[in-house]
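Lecture 7 notes: from sequence to structure.

We start with a single chain of 106 residues. Read the sequence below before looking at the structure.
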Amino acid sequence: MTDTPEPTGQQSKCVHMDFGVHADVARLTEVNGGPVVGYSVDVKVECADCGEPFCWRGVPLGVSQLAPTVSVDGTVLTAPIHPMSDPTTGIGLIGFRVTTYEGEAS
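Now the structure, written as tokens:
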């Protein structure tokens, strides 16, 4: 990963064709050295050519063990994860919802 460039207010001339992705997985415990009670992953994406970081859209700021969140600068996605063998896998994933809008939203 490169140092984060300072915002210039101007769009980069780079066409961002190649990307670097960095992910860190954390084991979550309630006390230091205690049993693992969960996992989370931090994901950061940047242009491999110019080093410009990419920001996550539509994700709330903050930290949560229940839902994805994003860092204050928008560049690091933190999301709770769990092994596929976890018996709670799929809870909350029954069905899906798609919302579409035509024209201006009221």
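DSSP finds no helices and four strands in the chain. Keep this in mind for problem set 3.
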